Input
Amino acid sequence: MESSKVTIATLGSHSALQILKGAKDEGFKTALVCLKSRLKLYSRFKKLTDEIVLVESFSEIMSQEVQEKLSNLNAILIPHGSLVEYVSLEQIENNFKIPIFGNKYILRWESDRNLKEKLLREAGVRTPKVYSSVDEVDSTVIVKLPGAKGGKGYFLATNPKEIREKLRILNIREEDIFVQEYILGTTAYVHFFYSPLSDELEIISMDRRYETNVDGLGKIPAKLQLQSNPDLSYLVVGNIPIVLRESLLEEIFEIGEGLVRASKELVPPGFIGPFCIEGAYNGEGKFYVFEFSARIVAGTNLYVNGSPYTWLLYDEPMSMGKRIAREIKRAMEERRVKELIT
Ligand code: AMP
Output
């Protein structure tokens, strides 16, 4: 089948522009499920979109009307962070009529902290210590709140008393928090692409996040930091590029391969296409993985025109969005699309 007969669809948010651009570059038709409130924004990039499906809220993607519209367009939906955030996992797993690129069942594993830990352990990667009880806290920890959007409201503490005081102020129950060893070091978020068609793992790109207001804190002197004692927030506002020392790459590939292996065992068919690890190098240069995402992450938006890593593999600009479209195109040529969708 030709790529022009298939529509690549996504929700208008997160990494949509790059996904649409990549799909267009590979000859697909594109559709955007767009909030009425964001129509003005996406109209500024109208050449990227063939069809706009207007909705009041993203949860409307589950309505029969929207599903039928997308189905008539022969659409494959590319999931990203906003799908996971605004549509329930039950709906995604059970009620989606149109094919989703990737393994939709693994999205649950990135949302549920216990499942996430299980997959990381199975992959054999180094992770920060997790404290099952606040009473055990004896070093600097990061306290992650339930349902925190993009790290908003996470806080640091060094002992049980501090944690309990803070929880009392925030009116949050102790059993709802996730307490993890804080890795003091340099963060690096690696964007992988696993191709089930060629059984190959690629590093597409890497980023660091700019998180307000923790990233602003270092710009004021220690005395003022102590005086103002601000409520920290890890809310992401943007992304910054990074490349790793070449000698660190092999370990990163091994971590990615461990995750691919573990995902195949625990959530078959495992990762399909993009996934990301979030971690930090501590003072000794040891890398600790504290999160993974099982789909495209917004840090890839830095590289719409390709990254240093894709430039080594492709003699053309290659973004994550385009890499996804390229995989679908190849699968269509080889009649293997079923291997890429769930
Ligand atoms: P997350 O919601 O897990 O992606 O975390 C949001 C941000 O909190 C990350 O981008 C890091 O800056 C920081 N963070 C999360 N977990 C840790 C950790 N264990 N050690 C150090 N920083 C962390």
Observations:
- The mean pLDDT is 95.
